[in-house]
Design a protein that fits this description.
elongated; four-stranded mixed β-sheet
Length: about 110
Amino acid sequence: METGSSKVISISENLASNSLQKQILTETIFEIGSEPNLVKALELVYPLSKNGEITLKAKGEFIPNAITVANILTQRILKNKCMVSKVTVDSEPIVSMGSFNSIIEIILKSSNQ
């Protein structure tokens, strides 16, 4: 009985993995947070090469992480194959605190497209 249930788990994990892969292929906007920068950059190599363009978004304290991920991709991993197309810096109000939160969007384009 345990063998049958483990097969069900592996099949459902496989389906989740396939749907995640499809989402990554069609997704072009990626939120940058507290994950390690090199790991995030490596995750973005395939979507960037497949789609030709991706957008990195970050808020507040994670803005330096987005800049670092963009630099890793453009200057290290995909040197001469990827470039920063556009950078947008903005802010949004935080009503409960009476202050603003900074936002950055970095658009990366593959040089092959």
